[in-house]
Design brief:
Layout lengths: L1 H9 L3 H4 L13 E6 L6 H9 L3 H6 L2 E7 L2 E4 L9 H7 L9 E5 L5 E5 L5 H10 L5
Parallel strand pairs: 1-2
Antiparallel strand pairs: 1-4, 2-3, 4-5
Length: 135
Amino acid sequence: MLKSFIREIIGASPVASDPCPSLLAFRNASYVLVLFEGAADDRPEMQEEMLANQHDVLAAHNIAIVRVAGGGVFTSLDQAMDIEADDVRRDLEGPSPEEFEAVLIDPNGATKLRSQEPVSVPSLIDAIDRLPREN
């Protein structure tokens, strides 16, 4: 009780109150499409095909891609990130390592879209355009 009272007075740390602390590096900077790429089927390959040659469109709409595959976290260019896969999976209540899921996170860290099927770039842009604008 004393700890919660102290937090109320001084405020909770940004990480403690962030809806997805593992992706804090993207906060207030971009939307993030997190792809949990399980090895159980061909959905990761289908998603990869849908995103192929779409880097300019994604950049124009401020969408970063983060892939969680096996025990690693990677950018869309297959560069490893210094983020733990289990942390991302826990923060986003993601699927098991064998399953596929696409999750769109807004710049505030809130989950805005979840899909067990691959998501097209037009669908992502449509989902973002439907979100209320903040002042």
